[in-house]
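[step 3/7] fold_predict: job queued, chain A
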Amino acid sequence: MQITKLVLVNFSSYEGKTVFDFTVKKEQPIILIGGLNGAGKTSIFTAIKIALYGPLAFGYTGNNTFYSKKIRGFINDKAFQTQPFTSGISIEVKVKKEREIKYYTINRNWHIIDSKIEESYSVYEGNKPLEYTDRILFESYILNIIPIDLFEFFLFDGEEVGTIFASDGYNKYVKNALLTMCGIDDFEILQHFCRNYNGRIESKEEMDLNDQYQNLVDKIAETEKAITACESILNDNMQKMSTLRTIIEQRETEFVRSGGLPPEEVKILEKNVLKYDKEREVIAQEIKSFFEDLMPFFIMKDMISQLKQQIKYEEKASIHEYIINMLSKEFISNIVADKTKKDNGISEALYEAIVKKFEVANGAFDEMIFDFSKAEMGQVLNLADAVTSFDSKEFTKKINDKDKMDKRVRSIRKRLKNALSEEDAKKYTDEIERSKQDIERLELESLQKKNEKIELESKLQVLNSELNSLREKIRDNAQKRHVLDLSTSISQMMERLISDSMISIRKQLSKKIIENLQQIYRKDNLISIIEISENFKFDLFQTQQFTMDELRSLIVNVGVKDFLAIIGSESVRKLCRHFSVNEAEGLKDAILSCDNNNEGIELYRRVDLNTLSKGERQIFILALYWAIIQISGKHIPFIIDTPYARIDANHREEISSKFFPNISSQVVILSTDEEITKDYYTIIKPYISKEYLLKNDQSENKTTVTEGYFF
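[step 4/7] structure written:
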């Protein structure tokens, strides 16, 4: 079950209508509500309790005068000063019934009739109001999920819970919580129920039901055992993978420090050497060509313009000379004579005009210097154009690029030369590769176990549903027939079942508390083992090294009985194995007669819960709560007020990162800015779905709510 919405209308210091959206995501189970002392955090506790239970929240069986007076004390003063009068609470919950998700809204609205407070109460499934019978069934369902006496268990007050565990009655508190959350209280009710019947079993149907019931109980026990085995393998694999990842990280670091290069990097470096060599060769050829071909002309580049002008002059001068040599006055006279009888100086004028047309002047000096052929002239002009267009900055950049590439190639070749030998590198890479393969194998195995666990949990749910149905049939038959033998048999079976279940639960509880402590407590030796008695008294033990002389002194000084209590049953079993004896008395004789006084043995020493510091006791209680919820498998909102009460700064980080995100599928944290500080807020931020900040105006006793936290 999860609370998805809480609406307060003129309730306590919340004036008007205040809406809290409590929806969470699977990866973000936390609702963080911040506020200074007196801001209205406790009112949220009270509102949820009243909404769910109504008069039962205060121990009343119905809506009476005493309940009305209680409610009147929670109504905001402003509500009495306005018309129409409005005040109430609405809570929306999400529940899973027979694999189907359903949403229910509980409304408790208060009205004034004849100056008295009257309550109107309704329950909706979605948008459909429930009829009276369905509403009674829903109330029973809520009480079955979170009985009223268990509600306080899920409203964790860091200040008050320590007081409970400081008293001698804490065991009843823990036992009742476990019985209820694990459903064993139903077995106790059934056992008590069966003892009140008389008669004999005469019906084969009743005997078959009994057999079916025992068969289902056995199947449930086997399934739970298989689930526990899957969880154990998953936890072991997680630890193994963590160790392997550490090994990989260490080996990779050592490999790099030793000069090792992974094969992939070697290939990349060799490829880069070839690439840079080719680029260097191209640039070197360009540089060589410049010095061989263009360098002489580049030195004389200031004379290029005159060179081109001279070549142009000599080209035209050669044409002029050619025409003079090929075209004579006689040739022109003969042509004119063929066309006209009178020359009248035409031939000479025409010759002079043609020669004049092809005359050329250089301007600087009129003489032939180069006398190039046509091909030579083209080559020289091409070189001149190359010199003119030559970019010296680009050429300088190429030289610099070649130098850089030379340095890169030398650096890469140096790295390749100084790298580990193939044989030495293989030692590292083989171990890294083996570790990676082991991680892949463990991940595959873990995936299989997770799927197997899901299937088993689904099967367990079906079996429990069948068991509940069968239990109802047995109850009906018992009521109808007054069957004493059947009742006795069921009673005995329930007694065995309760006894076996409680043994199993005590073992699981001890194991889970230790596991949780190891996650959130930094010291290794706060509590090493926990022995839980039938009435759920806790005996805590720390690991301690004893010499035989110390053990002998303990026996002499405190007596055998207190000696056994001090070291605990696990130490007794260990000592019995050590001395090959079977009984405590034999153990006493073996220790007293042992000659090796300085012989050491690692045992356990009892630690009184009340001797722990307040902070250590608080951490133990958190680990205990976490263990109870883990064992029960119930998905119920967990509301925490004063989360760090008595917790020192060294352990707040572990609690923030490991406890809060994992304690339940929905966690509501009520905190001041001195509890969840900026540092711890940063840690839990990835797990937060919603944030609210409560501010109280003391002059008006009015609480306002904004989204976000102090920071």
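[step 5/7] annotate
Residues 266-417 form one domain.
Residues 197-202 have pLDDT under 50 and may be disordered.
exit 0
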